[in-house]
Every structure is written in structure tokens, then in C-alpha cells.
Amino acid sequence: MFNPTRDQARQLFFYTWEKYNKQETLSGIETIALEIILLHPEYHPILDNPERYLDQGYSPEMGDTNPFLHMSMHVAIKEQLSINQPIGICDRFEQLQNITGNEHDATHRVMECLAEMIWQAQRHNTAPDAVIYLDCLDKQTK
User: Fold this and answer.
1) pLDDT of residue 99
2) Shared-domain flag, residues 25 and 61
3) Are 3 and 59 within one domain?
4) Residue 101 DSSP label
5) Which of 49, 63, 80, 138 is the most buried (most CB within 10 A)?
6) Is 76 part of a structural domain of the chain?
7) Cis omega before residue 86 (within 30°)?
8) Is 77 among the domain residues?
């Protein structure tokens, strides 16, 4: 399983953006990362300046959104959907697309549930629980 460090995850987005701007060939994961980057033009100035933002801290308590975490969650959800893991996520995602009217908004709804599952795991010092994730998604589809 791929388990990048914070800097490696950030570098993926910086390198992908740089390669895209130079019209260089992208790898599989870079293609996915680019798709996410292009959905978020508000992050392009950050990606244009890796020296400044590689070590940038983001504080949710101060209302900061971590663009790298946000984009990484997009990538994780795309990967989950590609293999229907946890089982049933694809059906729930399709329902969310019908509710929201588009893939991006549906992904953001899934992201809320993914964040909730991760928060619960951290809070209770347990492994992430797919039941919590899927239950949250079920609530999103009602």
C-alpha cells in the first residue's frame, strides 16, 4: 500500500502541475492528480509556488483549508470508486450524483463522510471503520 509522507503527497501535486505546464507526459497517478488540480483553479497559485507552500501549515481552528489534504481526499475517493471499496461506495456515489447533479459536488459529500470516518478513528485510536463511512453516506443520500 502506498503511504506517502506529507511532503511526498504535496510533491505529487507540485510535480504534476509543473509537468502539465511543461506539457510533459504524466504517469497514472499524476493523471488523476491533474484532473483534481484542474477542478480547483483556486489552488493553482499555490502549486505555482512550491518553495513557499511545501512546508505551509494549515490550521482548521483558524478556518484554513488545507488544499493538499483536500486534493488528496479527492484522489483517495477516485481510487475507492475505481475498485468499489468499501463495497457499496459506487452505488451510494451514483445516488449522490443524482442528488447533487454532478460528480464534483457528489465527491465533496463523500469527502465529508471520509473525513468523519478518519476523525472517528483518530479520536478513538482505532482503524478506520467502513461501517461509519457507509452509514454517513447513507445519511447523505436521504
Assistant:
1) 96
2) yes
3) yes
4) S
5) 80
6) no
7) yes
8) no
Q: What domain range is 111 assigned to? A: 84-142
30 neighbors 12 (Cβ within 8 angstroms):
yes
Residue with cell 463522510: 113
Instruction: Outline where the chain has alpha helix (H).
Output: 6-21, 28-39, 44-47, 50-53, 67-83, 89-100, 103-124, 130-140
61 and 88 belong to one structural domain? no
In one-letter notation, the amino acid at residue 126 is T
- The answer to the question of residue 79 being in a domain is no
Q: What residue type is 128 in one-letter code?
A: P
pTM over 0.85: yes
Distance CA 82, CA 76 (A): 10
Altogether, the residues listed in the chain come to a count of 142
Number of domains composing the chain: 2
Q: For residue range 57-112, list pLDDT tens digits in order.
A: 888 777 788 999 999 999 999 999 999 999 999 999 999 999 999 999 999 999 99
Q: Does 90 lie in the same domain as 57?
A: no
